[in-house]
Design brief:
The chain is α/β, with parallel strands linked by helices and about 625 residues long. The protein is built from 25 helices and 17 strands. The strands form three sheets. It has a seven-stranded mixed β-sheet, with helices on both faces. Strands 1-2-3-5-4 form a five-stranded parallel β-sheet, sandwiched between helices.
Length: about 625
């Protein structure tokens, strides 16, 4: 926050109770100040920009109308909740957002009583809110309003539909606020998006119904104790306008909207009108992602998380890279998939609302008819890929590590059980920095390793990534996973001539006689640095890049156990179930007595910080690798 900025209202809002002291006609000014605050803060300390800019009025109106924190607000995809954080006592701490020891970029109950439920992924708010509303009813608490704010296309997720389906069958007073901005990170896809557009074109019908409802309620013709009259009222309007169908009312959830989500005074009025109603309700609000900042309104995808920028000009400040410097792993994947598709007409690409983030956009531009973005629907993406594979195509299903967790059952039941050759391209494997615990790619090596029939691999660099992608075309009898990290690689000239690698075989990186390190993935490059540094102290280390976690190279394990009394493993994933466990299991099964020391992610969630700081706290940094090698030689 700019200490020189005079925020007339915001500087006096330390809690929602302070917000409620502001008159309704001054709330637009409060929203304007919050937007200025977000622009000022995020221009210097990057975070999720466009989504939070678009949800300012929603956050202000909800805290203004409802008695939070007794009434509880659950945010879906929590990157829309910065305004919520700012007005719930974290204004002065906002400069620490996403920094080590600072506040989280997402709602977190451990951080504030106003954060009712954790929200780093998508589509969980309705189910969680329903559970909390039912608990309140069972405990016979005085009326407690539970509000689920679902936005950025999360309504399209399967879990959201499961929650909607169950909501009307339970006695509850849950309010669902649908923040409809026609966007996830990229533009929404699918029939539901088209349906939401149709609802918006039917605004006249919905306006008439809402106004008639309020009129009849004022004259005591209908009320919440006379539900049959309400339903007859709704049905009568539908019969007059037979083409106006509403999916939410078909699920017996009363629908209101669509309303302008940036009309703060109108929002307060509507929320006051419906907050005390009995039964589940949905309030449909139309908003604009990036609202209030023209560059973000024009290009909300780029401004989803733009990094540092000049608040006056809107120019994004990018660190300059010399010509020929390494590109992002996701771009290596995207370009390589296009090369494969050009030579193999069976290759198809699938992602779940992350076409830009995974760089599947290159495939979309080159082969749009062979590329599918299925929206926030990871379970569907995996089973859809299974169907493509069953019919003879070669699907490359690219999803972030942390999001692929949602499709664990589908990987097992629909892919691995049938030995279908789906290639899982797992982006953001390992530590991801400031997004924190909800987004770390900590578990994919472990959860993929335990699945029968699955090949599990992780390249040490861009050349090996390309070779693994090339090799995966020829695996016809089982699925394969290839995980790679967020960020830039190491090789400037990354377009090597691709060649097949032998499944289950690792590589000797350097020979040595004092110690041995087995690594998997790009952490191997840090090991190379450590090995080279140790040479200066007269210590030689034998280093193997395993490449494959499953099947694991047993020849390397046998050689390592026979030559050394201690094996050090290094991985940027959970030690539980990863390379460390795999080596331990092999040694136990084969009666090997060598000791195994594992360097990797602990049995705890890694908090938000820079990747460098996370490496240090997890002990997989250069200094700790060197220290570990030296400690084994002292014993």
């Amino acid at each position: 926050m700019d200490s020189n900025t005079d925020y007339k209202y915001l500087n006096n809002i330390d809690s929602p109770a302070d917000l409620r002291k502001v008159s309704v006609d001054n709330l637009p000014a409060v929203c304007k100040e919050i937007r200025h605050f977000i622009v000022d803060s995020l221009s210097q300390n990057p975070g999720h920009f466009a989504s939070s800019m678009g949800a300012v009025e929603i956050a202000v109106a909800l805290h203004y109308v409802f008695n939070t924190p007794y009434d509880q607000i659950l945010w879906d995809v929590g990157h829309q909740a910065y305004a919520h954080k700012i007005i719930t006592g974290r204004r002065d701490a906002f400069s620490t957002n996403r920094k080590l020891g600072g506040i989280s970029g997402f709602p977190n109950p451990a951080e504030s009583e106003y954060d009712a439920f954790i929200a780093g992924h998508a589509s969980n708010s309705i189910s969680a809110a329903l559970g909390m509303a039912m608990a309140s009813a069972i405990k016979k608490e005085p009326r407690r309003n539970i509000v689920a704010v679902i936005g950025d296309a999360s309504i399209s997720g399967g879990l959201a539909f499961e929650g909607l389906n169950n909501a009307s069958s339970c006695k509850n007073n849950m309010l669902i606020v649908l923040n409809d901005n026609d966007m996830a990170i990229d533009h929404n896809v699918g029939a539901l998006n088209e349906y939401m557009t149709h609802i918006n074109t039917s605004k006249g019908y919905n306006d008439i119904r809402y106004k008639l409802y309020n009129l009849l309620k004022r004259h005591n013709i209908i009320d919440d104790t006379k539900k049959s009259r309400i339903m007859r009222f709704n049905n009568s309007l539908k019969s007059l306008l037979a083409d106006q169908q509403n999916i939410f009312e078909g699920l017996n959830i009363r629908y209101f909207g669509p309303f302008d989500g940036h009309d703060i005074e109108g929002l307060v009025k509507v929320l006051n009108d419906i907050k005390d109603m009995e039964g589940p309700r949905i309030l449909h609000l139309r908003t604009r992602k990036g609202k209030g900042y023209i560059p973000a309104e024009k290009d909300p995808t780029t401004w989803h998380a733009p990094g540092r920028f000049d608040p006056e000009s809107g120019e994004i400040i990018e660190s300059s890279k010399p010509v020929g410097s390494p590109i992002k792993y996701q771009d290596v994947f995207g370009h390589t998939l296009v090369e494969l598709a050009e030579n193999n007409e069976k290759v198809v690409g699938i992602t779940a609302a992350m076409s830009t983030g995974t760089s599947l956009t290159y495939m979309i531009n080159r082969f749009p008819e062979r590329t599918f973005d299925v929206g926030i629907s990871e379970e569907h993406a995996v089973t859809f890929s299974a169907g493509l594979a069953k019919a003879g195509l070669r699907p490359y299903c690219c999803i972030y590590s942390t999001f692929l967790q949602r499709a664990f059952d589908q990987i097992i039941h629909d892919v691995a059980l049938q030995k279908l050759p789906v290639v899982f391209c797992i982006d953001r494997g390992g530590l991801v920095g400031e997004d924190g615990a909800t987004h770390q790619g900590a578990f994919d090596l472990s959860y993929m390793r335990l699945i029968p029939n699955m090949i599990v691999s992780a390249p040490i660099n861009e050349h090996m990534l390309r070779n693994l992608l090339y090799t995966s075309q020829y695996v016809t009898d089982r699925p394969m996973s290839i995980r790679y990290p967020r960020g830039n690689g190491l090789i400037g000239d990354w377009r090597n001539k691709m060649s097949k690698v032998t499944i289950g075989k690792g590589n000797l990186v350097s020979e040595g006689s004092d110690s041995v390190i087995l690594s998997i993935g790009t952490i191997g490059n840090t090991v190379i640095e450590a090995v080279n540094s140790l040479k200066n102290d007269g210590i030689t280390v034998c280093h193997y890049d395993m490449t494959f976690l499953k099947p694991i190279d047993e020849d390397i394990l046998d050689t390592a156990c026979n030559r050394f009394h201690t094996i050090i493993t290094a991985e940027e994933g959970a030690l539980n179930g990863g390379l460390y466990n795999a080596v331990m299991d092999w040694c136990n099964r084969h009666g090997k007595s060598c000791r195994v020391i594992g360097l990797g992610l602990p049995d705890s969630f890694v908090p938000h910080a820079t990747v460098k700081q996370q490496y240090e706290m997890c002990g997989i940094d250069l200094e700790n690798i060197i220290k570990t090698v030296k400690s084994t030689l002292e014993k």
